[in-house]
Amino acid sequence: MGNKRVNSILITQPASLDGMIPYNALGEKWNIVVDFRRFIRVDGLSLNEFRKLNVNPLDFNGIIFTSKVAVDHFFRIINEMRIEMPPETKYYCVGEATYKYLQKYILIRKRKMFVGDKTAMDLIPFIDKFKKEKFLFPCSNVHQGELLNYMKSKDIDVTVAEIYLTVHDDLSDLKEVFYDMICFFAPTGIQSLFKNFPDFKQNDTRIAVFGSTTAQEAKLAGLRIDVEAPRPGITSMTAAIEEYLKESNL
Prior knowledge:
Structural class: alpha/beta
Strand order of the largest sheet: 3-8-7-4-5-6
Number of strands: 11
Strand content: 15-25%
Order of helices and strands: EHEEHEHEHEHEHEEHEHEH
Helix content: 25-40%
CATH class of the largest domain: Alpha Beta
CATH architecture of the largest domain: 3-Layer(aba) Sandwich
Largest sheet: 6 strands, mixed
Radius of gyration: 20 Å
Number of domains: 2
Number of helices: 9
Oligomer: single chain
Shape: elongated
């Protein structure tokens, strides 16, 4: 498919000023249309809904964060509960970005922080060090179970709290719209595509994916992956797209 020109790209994320900048720059450089449309939305649990989980955040020594969204909703909940996590609480973050994002809510230099390289499984050495403690895993209704399965296999006390829901958005406005390339960043985005358009046929549409789980979901859905990131030498989606454009659009 590399010989067919790309004239339009759909980014399956909501438009935000920071997020749009590199993609808009790519569009201007290559004279292509770049649109943004979220394929999923996040609905946080209300305080009353959270109370029904019978989870008290103060009962836990360690909080495991695998996304910025989990950070937002966790601290929203404890703020609505009018409680404050004690200084000795340990925070386990899936990566540097999530770790830095915590600064929005706490002084991280005064807290006990543990940061993985890229995946939740990178947190295992830190969790093993404190395996006798109680862990809380705030997450969505759609979450990966690899780390949880490991913790349970080691009889580590971990409680899952689904504090926000990942919901497929209504994409009916895209029914008659065609894009040369669609970029996905999570398995749920691909699931949303087929929930909205069960008869979707890829044909000449190029599919770009970010992350191994997204790639796996694309393959399970029978999609042909044309652009993939990250990989050696290519760390971002924009870099992967540009590499493809150098073949298709020159």
